[in-house]
């Protein structure tokens, strides 16, 4: 079963949808973005979220102390780094926290991925750009990834099964592909989770 993360949730209605469709992960965006939410709102959303669903905090070049506070409060249980965070930063973060860390890699060519294969992060997330843009990349490039990864970038219910079959990700990550009119849509969320959980294409760990 391929795992799935629904990213960019922005309120209690989105949480209600997530509780019904039961993804493996949800993403709370704390970085500056149209999907950004406050720590206070995120805490309320976490409290309303089913306990078995893992909440992931999305950050861009954030202070480590800020991330630690959100983990220690129970708001998030996983960290996604979407900026210029280097190996030194990730090592420092992991010294402070015991939760898994995801490092996002913007894929433009084979060479853009190679330096990250030895990253101290627990997972890589392969994306086409800064996230939530709806743009995809050449999925064949993901085949050189020798470690568990999240696949993102322009995924939706129409291309998700093919993406999983082509790349064999640990998990898929959707945001804009779950939206209609800029808001999360229950039917799209339901379709995506159903497709991902039907696909048994897990990469070897």
Automatic annotation (TrEMBL):
Where is each N-(5'phosphoribosyl) anthranilate isomerase (PRAI) domain found?
A: 5-193
Query: Which InterPro entries is this protein grouped with?
Result: Aldolase_TIM (IPR013785), PRAI_dom (IPR001240), RibuloseP-bd_barrel (IPR011060), TrpF_fam (IPR044643)
Q: What class of enzyme is it?
A: isomerase
Q: Which reaction(s) does the protein catalyse, per the Swiss-Prot or TrEMBL entry?
A: N-(5-phospho-beta-D-ribosyl)anthranilate = 1-(2-carboxyphenylamino)-1-deoxy-D-ribulose 5-phosphate
One annotated GO molecular function: phosphoribosylanthranilate isomerase activity
- In this record, what's one Pfam family? PRAI
Mind telling me which Gene3D superfamilies this protein's record contains? Answer: Aldolase class I
Protein's GO biological process: L-tryptophan biosynthetic process
**Keyword Amino-acid biosynthesis listed:** yes
- Alphabetized UniProt keyword annotations: Amino-acid biosynthesis, Aromatic amino acid biosynthesis, Isomerase, Tryptophan biosynthesis
The pathway that the record names for this protein is:
Amino-acid biosynthesis; L-tryptophan biosynthesis; L-tryptophan from chorismate: step 3/5
Q: What is its EC number?
A: 5.3.1.24
For this protein, the record's PANTHER family field holds: N-(5'-PHOSPHORIBOSYL)ANTHRANILATE ISOMERASE
Similarity comment: family membership: Belongs to the TrpF family.
The molecule here is called: N-(5'-phosphoribosyl)anthranilate isomerase
